[in-house]
C-alpha cells in the first residue's frame, strides 16, 4: 500500500507542469500557485525540455499534457518515474481516449483528468495524487483491461510469441504487466536500468508490438496461458 504523504504551507506540494500551450501553463500555474499548500516549481512545453528540467526540480507532482509536438506526456511520465519513483503524475488531456488511459496506467500515472475539469477539481486532484492516492477509477481501469484481454485479434498469436521469450524476458514482461517502471524492474531483478531497457527492446520485437501497453496486455496471457482453452464450468 502506498504511504500517505502530507503537505503544509511550510512544506508545500511541489508541482511541475508540461503543456505546449503557454496560456494553459500560465492558467494552471496561477490556479495552483494561489493555493497555500501548493507551489509550481517549473514548467516545460516539450518532451525534451520536460525530461531535462523535471528531474532537476524534484517535484512531488507532475501535471502532464498527453499530446505534445515532439512526443507525448505518457513517455515523460514513464521516464520521470524511472528516475523519481515517488513522483505522482497527473495526466491532463483534451480527449477522453481509452488507449491513452491504458497507456497512462501502464506508465504508472496516478491520475488522468480532462482539461474540461473545473479549477477546484484540478486542485483537489493534485492534492489527491500528492498524498499517494490514485485518481484512476478502478472500475474503468478493470473494464478496459478486460476488454483488451478479451480481444480475439490478440489471442491466436499470443502462445507462439510468448514461447519465444527467454525466462528473463518472461520475468520482465510479467513485471511490465504489473505496471513497474524500468528502474523498479531493475531493482526487483538486480539488473541495471540500461540492461532492462535492452531486454524490453528485444522482447517487444519478439512479441511483434511497438508499445509497452501492448506487451502488458500480452503479459496477462503469460499469467493465465490456458485460460482461453478451459471449458466453461
What labels would you give this structure?
233 residues; alpha/beta; Rossmann fold; Arc Repressor Mutant, subunit A; 2 domains; five-stranded parallel beta sheet; two-stranded antiparallel ribbon; 11 helices; 51% helix; disordered C terminus; Sig_transdc_resp-reg_C-effctor
Mean pLDDT: 81
- Give the helices and strands as they follow along the chain: EHEHEEEHEHEHHHHHHH
**Spatial shape:** elongated
| CATH structural architecture of the largest domain | 3-Layer(aba) Sandwich
Number of domains: 2
The CATH homologous superfamily of the largest domain is named Response regulator
Number of helices: 11
- Helical percent range? 40-55%
Low-pLDDT runs of 5+ residues are 151-159, 224-233
Output the strand order for the largest sheet: 2-1-3-6-7
Give the strand tally: 7
Largest sheet: 5 strands, parallel
**CATH structural class of the largest domain:** Alpha Beta
Protein name: Response regulator transcription factor
Pfam families: GerE, Response_reg
InterPro entries: CheY-like_superfamily, NreC/VraR/RcsB-like_REC, Sig_transdc_resp-reg_C-effctor, Sig_transdc_resp-reg_receiver, Tscrpt_reg_LuxR_C, WalR-like
Domain HTH luxR-type: 158-223
